[in-house]
Write a structure and sequence with these properties.
Helices cover about 65% and strands about 5% of the residues. With about 375 residues, it is mainly α. Helix 9 runs parallel beside helix 11 (about 295-320).
């Protein structure tokens, strides 16, 4: 590009060249082997064969990179964001895996931290626009290349891992804190790397943001479904009953499950989100059965019932062995006799699926749906 460089009122004609790394590599080779190389004529055949071979390889690389670029550009922004998170995870693996294994060499095996990298990339890029992800990724790539880690980076004090004045996150934060401080090195490494890459002024602030981002991996996704209920039901009821019930249900479910894939975008998390959306849909279908006006005590009672309903449904999906027949029967009784929100469910079918000895895995899926699906009943058979 022919340009003019103007400095101190002096104009200088210049040529601006924009090159890719492939161009630069080729230029360096050409400069060293041919440009001002007076012995080139003597070795023309040798250099020509080598340069032709290199040109072929670089052309192939250029074609492959162009194919990748076209592929990414053809995808929607959601797909592009996912691919960029995958790229970030891969960079973490390349830059950190060897050092982490050296730190934990006493385990006598190579520990696989790929799940840590996947969740960490998701948390660091959460809620950002496509352009924001590009900027963040550029910054973090530079950080990763120069990141030095030691055992001290993964040692924390319990006094730093607390959240104050945020009631909806307090219980969740306590559960996460216990995992970080436990012998589960994966949670410790996850938070330690988060702290290193965020570079905030305090561990407390890092922890609060860490817990918020973990929770938001879900709430950002089911928020639209909750807004549908908000349009049909009294907004006060949604904010005081349903929203807290979903929060508590998720927290209680994770408390029993404890694994990272609870939050990682993919198969399990998608299934959990389906359970939450079906749970909200069941309330939308039965919104006319809600009849609480000024009975304040009913709000707390309903919140507890809905929390237990969601907790049992999620655990039936992810960890059915933690649910007993007695718990399901107790929930069934509460739903069947509740007067403030009448749940028209097939209670007879629910009872018929409950064997006396255990909750089989396949049974769990049927129970999840039965606890959501409304059935038409005669008036005398409703909760009365």
């Amino acid at each position: 590009m022919d340009c003019l460089w103007i400095h101190n009122e002096v104009t200088t004609p210049i040529e601006l060249q924009i090159k890719s790394l492939v161009h630069m590599f080729w230029g360096e080779l050409e400069h060293k082997l041919i440009y001002k190389n007076y012995s080139y004529d003597e070795q023309r055949g040798f250099y020509k064969d080598i340069m032709d071979s290199i040109e072929g390889m670089l052309s192939n690389i250029d074609f492959q990179l162009s194919t990748i670029n076209r592929h990414l550009n053809s995808k929607g922004q959601r797909e592009q964001k996912l691919r960029m998170r995958e790229m970030f995870s891969a960079e973490m693996y390349i830059n950190l895996q060897k050092d982490l294994n050296n730190l934990y060499i006493d385990y006598n095996i190579d520990l696989d931290f790929r799940e840590v990298y996947t969740l960490l990339s998701q948390l660091l890029l959460l809620g950002k626009t496509y352009k924001g992800i590009v900027r963040e990724l550029s910054s973090q790539m530079n950080e990763l290349a120069n990141l030095k880690i030691s055992e001290d980076d993964f040692i924390f004090q319990s006094t730093d891992l607390v959240i104050e004045g945020e009631s909806h996150l307090t219980d969740f934060g306590e559960n996460v804190s216990k995992l970080i401080l436990s012998e589960d090195i994966f949670w410790g490494v996850l938070f330690g790397l988060y702290v290193k890459l965020k570079e905030n002024e305090s561990i407390k602030l890092d922890f609060k943001q860490f817990v918020e981002n973990l929770y938001f991996t879900f709430s950002l996704l089911y928020g639209e479904k909750l807004s549908e209920l908000n349009e049909l039901l009294d907004e006060n009821a949604v904010q005081k009953i349903v929203a807290p019930a979903i929060t508590c249900g998720l927290v209680e479910s994770f408390k029993a499950y404890k694994e990272m894939d609870f939050f990682i975008e993919g198969a399990l998390k998608d299934e959990i989100l389906k359970v939450i959306e079906e749970f909200i849909d069941s309330l939308i279908y039965q919104v006319d059965n809600y009849s609480v006006d000024e009975i304040e005590n009913a709000e707390k009672e309903l919140q507890i019932i809905l929390t237990e309903k969601l907790r049992i449904q999620i655990l039936l999906l992810v960890k059915a062995e933690n649910i007993t027949v007695e718990e399901v029967r107790e929930l069934k009784l509460k739903l069947e006799t509740n007067q403030y929100w009448v749940f028209d469910l097939d209670f007879e079918q629910i009872e018929s699926l409950l064997p006396d000895y255990k909750i089989p895995g396949e049974l769990g899926v049927n129970l999840i749906h039965l606890l959501n699906n409304r059935v038409e009943r005669k008036e005398e058979n409703k909760n009365d």
